[in-house]
Amino acid sequence: MILAKNFHTKRLWPALLCLLLLAPARQASAFTIQELLEAASHHPDVEASELASTEGALREEQAAAALYPRVSLFGKAEAYNSPTNLRPMPPTEVNVAAGDAIPFSREIVRYGLAVEAPLYVAKVYRLREKLRYLAEKSVIASRVNLISRQAAVVSLASGYRYLSQLREAVDARLKSLAATGEAVRLKVANGRAAEAELMRIDNSVIALNQQQNDLALKILDVQRDLTKFTGLEVQEPVQLTLAEAPGSGELIGLKLEEAELQAQKKEVERAQAGRYPTLSLYGTISGNDGMAYNTDEHVSRAYNFAGLVVTVPLFDRTVSADEQLARIGECKAEKKLADTRIELTALEKNLTSRLPVVEAGLALAERGLANDVQLLEIARVSFGSGRMSSEEYLRYEAQVLEAQAAVAKNRDEQWQIRAKQAVIHGIDLRGVVK
Questions:
Q1: Which of 69, 152, 309, 409 could form a disulfide with 117 if both were Cys (CB 3.0 to 4.6 A apart)?
Q2: Which residues of the chain have pLDDT under 70?
Q3: Contacts of 365 by beta carbon, 8 Å cutoff, 6+ apart
Q4: Whole-prediction pTM value?
């Protein structure tokens, strides 16, 4: 009994060790579609596009900041080769005959506060409005990027399931042919069937094995692309269930181009504003200290002033060139918007029309598969009793495989359409699939 117990224990430990080693790999590869979509939503490229939208908002703030006053402290130490006035001095300020210290010095320290404030600068106003639209465009572009990546993940996940279902269908046919081939082999050995019958079945098995190899390569490519979009190692297909059909609505691509068009319109206005006058305020509060050159006494004078500056542009050829370029940009944006509207409207109509056709095709494919499975069972019996040739029997096997592929293809096509609908309408796929 002790020997038997030790023997079973020795056999049990390697099995437990294998389970422990394989368990993490299985857990790492078994993901849900929500986990894949969440991983895609935190992909570095998506986060970079979110930073771009934040950058757009900051650029708008930067343009608006140019309209605020600029206040600065200053301090200067100056040395001259001849006595220089601390500030402009009226003739009656100093009694030179009485020996007063004259506020002229060879070394002067100046310090104080300087203020500059734009009161009216049309170009800055237009630039701020342009950047506001560009910031809006960046937000939309970030969302488009996110949903496009989610759609790619759903599309790849659906393609993975399609390829896996094809692989399972081929496996089923291989098992079926293996059972039939074994029965034919016995008949050939007993002289009840020609060896050519067995060779035909063997050729069908070889063709199916070649399909398996092709499917394995395609699955490797899909796994690579899923890793590229999610950063996760997906080793098996995920379940896809429709939570809510992506409804119709505004086309997010049009919003993107409309924001670009509005930005270009503001660029035209900004270029035109180069002809408008500008008005700004400036002022300084300054202290000026030095040693009077005639008495070597310390002298100090304050010098404060404020002023308004009006600048009226009279001739600047660059303004006309800027305006022409801006108008061309506006025209290009209008054409791009019109082209995008035509393209997205046609795509939306096509997808809306295709979905019910694909759904009808799926129902027909499922009915055809059920019939082909029954016909294959009948053909298997007829072939076994010698009432059917191997060529006819193999055609029924091929029909079942084609029917299974048609069902899988229609299911994949449904998800491809839904993913595209989500992209053109800007719908987060985390609420569409579960």
A1: 69
A2: 1-29
A3: 403, 406, 407, 409, 410
A4: 0.79
